[in-house]
């Protein structure tokens, strides 16, 4: 139900570290979206966030779900607090945009997606790397088959997270709160971007480890081989143990050219010697500051979600596309445990 200005009403649940780029994006989209309430259990933090960004506070989740002028809920809580919230919102008929991952386990993620589909509400998932200008330029070029057939894929996420100030925070790097380590918490963005361009992975072989640089329950280093359903071969390396941290990069090798996405820039190297570049570089969150990136990617993703609600289509990043990443992560970690090739389940 749009307001008198035709804006979609939005409620926000959760307002921690990851909420700032969303708030900046929402204020940039204020002609399309009216933020009608923000709920966070910590009252002082909630009021400070609302005062900073000009949003009205809400006293409870129930207050947001019972507001007839709220069409959608933006869920920014940690994944361990998410399933009950999303199911309640879906039952209340609210569309849902939620931070990654969908949940800590694939089983819970599948339940969330099924609940939204059963309630007939739109489900979007925040994988903003798809919305970088360079990513979209590469996607278009691939659709037009400018580079020929995809032959090989190389993904590197060489990030750094310090023990002090990051992993020392309660719950960080645990199965109970995060659901896993570097794959589901950091590299998941790059994995989603890769799959959006390459299509699904058929099977994997992987090694996972926790280095002595960190004291944590889950993995901070993963290397793997990938066999894609379209026949391409691939390799990945993801870590939060690479001080001081560097930009993630995705290289796709085609018949006619190689295309590399690195921290927001697309570089195309043609086999005939030509070279071109698209986009602007950004830090990308690979260093000690996990929020060192602009908010325009969030703005584009939220705008796509709102358009999906209005037109009745699926958002570009939705529950079903997000499950592909969960299945891939499960297969990588299963291979690392079992020591052999593992098929990616669906």
UniProtKB/TrEMBL annotation:
<dbReference type="InterPro" id="IPR000683">
    <property type="entry name" value="Gfo/Idh/MocA-like_OxRdtase_N"/>
</dbReference>
<dbReference type="InterPro" id="IPR052515">
    <property type="entry name" value="Gfo/Idh/MocA_Oxidoreductase"/>
</dbReference>
<dbReference type="Pfam" id="PF22725">
    <property type="entry name" value="GFO_IDH_MocA_C3"/>
</dbReference>
<dbReference type="InterPro" id="IPR036291">
    <property type="entry name" value="NAD(P)-bd_dom_sf"/>
</dbReference>
<protein>
    <recommendedName>
        <fullName>Oxidoreductase</fullName>
    </recommendedName>
</protein>
<dbReference type="GO" id="GO:0000166">
    <property type="term" value="F:nucleotide binding"/>
</dbReference>
<feature type="domain" description="GFO/IDH/MocA-like oxidoreductase">
    <location>
        <begin position="141"/>
        <end position="259"/>
    </location>
</feature>
<dbReference type="InterPro" id="IPR055170">
    <property type="entry name" value="GFO_IDH_MocA-like_dom"/>
</dbReference>
<feature type="domain" description="Gfo/Idh/MocA-like oxidoreductase N-terminal">
    <location>
        <begin position="9"/>
        <end position="125"/>
    </location>
</feature>
<dbReference type="Pfam" id="PF01408">
    <property type="entry name" value="GFO_IDH_MocA"/>
</dbReference>
């Amino acid at each position: 139900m749009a307001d008198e200005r035709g804006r979609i009403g939005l409620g926000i649940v959760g307002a921690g570290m990851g909420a700032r780029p969303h708030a900046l994006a929402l204020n940039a989209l204020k002609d399309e979206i009216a933020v009608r309430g923000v709920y966070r259990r910590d009252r002082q933090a909630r009021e400070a966030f609302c005062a900073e960004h000009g949003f009205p506070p809400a006293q409870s989740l129930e207050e947001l779900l019972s507001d007839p002028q709220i069409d959608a809920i933006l869920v920014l809580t940690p994944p361990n607090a998410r399933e009950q919230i999303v199911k309640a919102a879906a039952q209340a008929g609210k569309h849902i945009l939620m931070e990654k991952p969908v949940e800590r386990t694939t089983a819970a993620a599948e339940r969330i997606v099924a609940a939204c589909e059963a309630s007939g509400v739109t489900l979007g998932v925040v994988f903003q790397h798809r919305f970088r200008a360079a990513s979209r330029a590469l996607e278009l070029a691939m659709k037009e088959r400018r580079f020929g057939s995809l032959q090989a894929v190389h993904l590197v996420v060489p990030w750094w997270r310090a023990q002090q100030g990051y992993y020392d925070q309660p719950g960080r790097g645990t199965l109970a709160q995060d659901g896993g380590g570097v794959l589901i918490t950091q590299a998941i963005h790059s994995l989603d971007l890769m799959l959006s361009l390459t299509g699904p992975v058929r099977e994997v072989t992987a090694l996972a480890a926790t280095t002595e640089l960190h004291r944590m329950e889950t993995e901070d280093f993963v290397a793997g081989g990938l066999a894609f359903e379209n026949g391409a071969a691939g390799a990945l390396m993801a870590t939060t143990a690479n001080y001081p941290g560097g930009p993630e990069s995705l290289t796709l090798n085609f018949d006619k050219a190689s295309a590399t996405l690195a921290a927001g820039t697309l570089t195309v190297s043609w086999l005939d010697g030509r070279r071109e570049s698209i986009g602007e570089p950004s830090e990308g969150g690979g260093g000690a500051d996990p929020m060192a990136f602009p908010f325009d990617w969030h703005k584009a993703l939220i705008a796509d979600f709102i358009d999906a609600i209005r037109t009745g289509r699926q958002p570009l990043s939705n529950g079903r596309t997000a499950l592909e990443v969960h299945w891939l992560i499960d297969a990588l970690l299963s291979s690392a445990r079992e020591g052999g090739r593992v098929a990616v389940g669906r």
